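Below sits the subject:

***
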Amino acid sequence: MPTILVIDDDRSIHLLARKALEPVGDVVAADTGEKGLAAMGSETFDCVLLDIQLPDRSGLALFCEIHERDRNLPVIFMTSEANSQTAIEAMQLGAFDYLGKPLAIEALRELVQRAIQQRVMSSVPVAISADNNFSSADAELFVGNSHSMLDVFKIIGKVSKQDVPVLIRGESGTGKELVARALFQYSNRTDRPFLAVNCAALPDNLLESELFGHEKGAFTGADTRRIGKFEQCHGGTLFLDEIGDMAPTVQAKVLRVLQEQRFERVGGNKELKTDVRIVAATNQPLEQMVEDGDYREDLLYRLNGVTIQLPPLRERAGDIPLLMQYFLSQAKSELGKPDLQGIAPETAEQLNAYHWPGNVRQLRSVIRRAVLETVMPVITPDILPADILKRQENDVVSPSAPAQAEQNTKEIADGAGLPALIQEKLDEKSTDIYAAALQYMERYVLIRVLRETGGNQSQAAEMLGITRGKLRDRIQTYSITLDSDVSIQTT
């Protein structure tokens, strides 16, 4: 049975802890720091409850001594004078958690149970080690050995030294810019500039100025001449991300650069020459956009000298453990977590089973957040974001996908599910009701507008007052499908 050490000079705390933790484990009490250390010398504990103010020393100082003896032992601080400074100091030292007095029995019991569970997981060999087995030259793209990624590496090797345009295709977060940088790194232009422009992040008039520059007085606010990326990048490589979000006028000017390597600044009439290799990327169906009249067919053919198709992470699941280890060792170093050992088997199982709609970028973000938040040497499942944990629960028992999608879409499209959502959160004593309601309303607005436009994303983005790139990201985030009808996808 687990054993909990309570170090506090208040005997009422000892009695309360024994009563509250009776179903959890045995409680050993000490009223000074010295007695607490002596108890640790003769017995092994699974959790420590430690008062900040002790008769013989500071609880913060005692924590450092405990931590030196056993870095895997979770320590929960207690204090009757809770304030921001002591809470921050306690968590900086690596405390498991921090409780204010008077202690609430249920909260105390739940916290100690969680601490003991993490203690048990920390004693099991990790599934993914945080040891750095990667060289500084490694990059996320090249961490993996799946067949689909090996094919990508082969194409990069074949075309990197050829001065032909390359179109990189793949879902958001798959690493398209990393491929572009690899093409540059292994090209004959490595001694010249590499510049990147996100076409979805800028309004059409600003994008044109960003690429081609402008003359003084070309438009309101153009107080000085601006040199654009095509001039800045002469002799180098220009990466155009989200190429599908270009306005028709910008598309025409980019086409001319590809054909003739010539252009004019906005508001200018002097023809300028440039020598730029263009690498473009998109996650949009450009062929369908050509059919719909939203994209120039001749530009697509020019950009599509060579196509590199990046697979989504769910299609190269065998690479997930390697990517996890890379991101883990990277975060361990960058975030200053020298005691981090790795990822517990249960955590690795959940991460491997997740579908990763945000691909490699999302996996990196989740690992870094877990490393940042953990106070134990092993990352346990409770550190993971709620959407990953909920995904596992939904995989156990779920209604049929079509029926669920139809029900979810109907509730969101008419707003009927919002009161039920708020009541559910209230019943759960949730602390994220505001965020949950905002997400619900955002889905509601997106579905209503997309249905109004028949799924036309360009028109919907204009009505919403956001860029097409932003709309596309939100559609992916909320798993909205645009087939015969706008609905919510369940997987």
